[in-house]
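Sequence only, no structure available. Ideas?
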Amino acid sequence: MTMLSFSPNQWAVLALVLVLGWLLGLLSRSGGAKWRHLYEQERSDHQATIADRDARIAAANARIAELERTAPAIGAGTAGAIAAAARGGVDDLTRIHGIDRNEEVRLNEEGYARFRDIARMSDGDEATLEGRMGYEPGRIARENWRGQAAALAEGRAPEYRQA
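Reply:
I predicted one. Tokens follow.
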């Protein structure tokens, strides 16, 4: 094995590099106070962000509770139908002969979720609903939806169940 040997010039360069590295380290040293201050600032910013988020969530929950208190039993659109179903405010309209699951969803979206809603329709309401749903005129009367719904609302008429 050979030993490493340095010339005096190489020793001088090595010493100079070590001294320059030590000086550069001292100059770039920012101290613990700077990093501690940045950490504390970041932590307080994070806590403020969490507090803001919690306040916004509380405000949103309060708004949701307010809307639930003031909302009608059934609203228009799918959101109203889903909300009514979640509250148990819908009947199984597929028990009425002539209504399948897709039509039931569409009826819920139109605001008809209970048997009594269908039973209370007027002739004008029937015509409007047939137009909105794309049915041929007279289908609701021909299939006697109102009569079936009235019977089902009273808890009778098992013969109207679909097979």
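The chain is about 65% helix and 0% strand.
Hope that gets you unstuck.
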